[in-house]
Amino acid sequence: MKNCATRKCLYRVVVIVAVALAQRGITEAQAMPIQSTVSDGSSAADNNLIATEMPSSSIPADALPDAPMSQDQSSGQNQQAPQRDQTQTHINLIPLLPPKLVAGTTLTAHDKWEIYYHKTYSPAAVIYPLFGAGIKMANPKKGYPEEWQDGMGAFGRNYGNMIAQRTARSTADFSTQMLFHEDPRYQRSDSKNPLLRVGHALVWTFVDKSDSGNRTFALSTFTSSAAGGFVGMAYLPDGYNDVTHAEQRMAMEISGRAISNVLTEFEPIWGPWAAKLRIPKILPDWWVPQSKP
Question: Where is this region: Disordered (predicted)?
């Protein structure tokens, strides 16, 4: 009895901490000035950045001082390069995977908010749980009541459970990264040895990088996993809404984080192969949110 009371007390502490982190993180993100990753055509720094990225032999004659480029042409070039960088660096097309870390780039609060929004509320993030709910319906857990196993109501409950877990996990992840200045991106290993690369991905689950580029304890791994694991105690059926099952779900969340890092590590290998499958494009261009100038 005493052990049960201790676990309930621990659960309350975890919930209070998760809610506090979420509120503080979102408040801090909204309070900080928004810095768009897309140039508006009026920033001299962006113009200089694009100029330095272009080889000297490829600069057209129209770019010389005596023949300046037209405003439309200059604006188009300024927007194209940052958008390409954002798609490859700041957002992963697959919300289940973290974006890749490029050395020398620092994320702003707005960049972190875009990653959080894409992983939690983008159309892709809403569609992926449909497949997970279908799998749960096809393989129901032992002891689940009928209203969680059969019919559209059961599908809605399983889908809602996956959405709630994703939202709680991503919100705690984002809040921790904002408060403790963690970089949400994953940095691939420079090694060519597959075993070393797998080891690098697993270690990154527990030790990642800060906004300043230094190695740091990956606190967000544990806060997000706790949030995703314990949120089900509020609505899951009896027998699955206890602390023991919440701890098991938390362990699965940490395992999923490690698997996500391994997939991201080898994404340059399996990514082109997956693209060759020629799967019909179901979602339109709003699959990935675009920054507004």
Answer: 56-86
